[in-house]
Specification:
This protein has four helices and ten strands. By secondary structure, it is of the alpha+beta class.
């Protein structure tokens, strides 16, 4: 018998030989080894996937060839511009004009006739500011031949000039008409009842009233 035939017969006999019988503990040990190999394979596979994801993110944030700028060379953060606040010192609008020479108070399109003007001439024709409103207000009138008299006047608007001197606009009441015979004096201007009530309702604290006087109109 040749050597090749002997070798082939031995290999065939070894292939068909009965595998050794494995007992229960051996089977369990073999199964545990298989599970450990599978877990190790899963862990290695998951870690590799995470590593690839991190690598891709790093490449996306820092592409090839790009260099991080130096800390001192980074441009400052851009902030939104802040709108300018309105100036609190806004000019107070003029709501009317008191014409002393023509005896009229113009407010809007309405002209209120001045029925009486008692008192000293205004020191200046500058603007006057509304500082208070009284309904009514007791005003003092100085009589040349008698003692000072107080008269309750409805719809009084109190004004102040630049030197903080008071002046009053109110109703020309019947009692004041009687006092006119005694040359009463007071820093006061009298309007008709309806006009005084209208001006009282329109005037507001802080409003400005222009004062003019034309000598040619006297």
């Amino acid at each position: 018998m040749s050597d090749e035939l002997s070798t082939a017969l031995r290999e065939l006999a070894a292939a068909r030989a009965t595998r050794p019988v494995v007992d229960g503990p051996g089977i369990r040990a073999r199964a545990m080894r298989r599970r450990r190999r599978r877990r190790t394979a899963y862990a290695l596979g998951g870690g590799g996937t995470a590593a690839l994801a991190l690598l891709g993110l790093a490449l996306h944030l820092h592409p090839a060839g790009a260099q991080d700028p130096l800390p001192g060379s980074r441009p400052p953060a851009v902030t939104a511009p802040v709108s300018a606040l309105p100036s609190p010192s806004a000019a107070t609008p003029v709501v009317g004009t008191l014409d002393l020479s023509r005896h009229g108070l113009t407010c809007g399109r309405r002209v209120l006739p001045v029925l009486a003007q008692w008192g000293r001439p205004l020191a200046s024709t500058g603007p006057m500011r509304v500082v208070a409103k009284h309904n009514p207000r007791d005003l003092t009138f100085v009589l040349r031949s008698k003692n000072p008299v107080e008269v309750r006047v409805p719809y009084v608007v109190e004004l102040r000039d630049r030197q903080d001197r008071p002046y009053y606009i109110g109703v020309f009441t019947p009692k004041l008409k009687a006092l006119s015979e005694y040359a009463a004096e007071s820093d006061w201007i009298g309007l008709g009842a309806e006009d005084a009530a209208w001006f009282y309702a329109r005037a507001h604290i802080g409003d400005t009233l222009a004062v003019t006087e034309d000598p040619a109109a006297r």
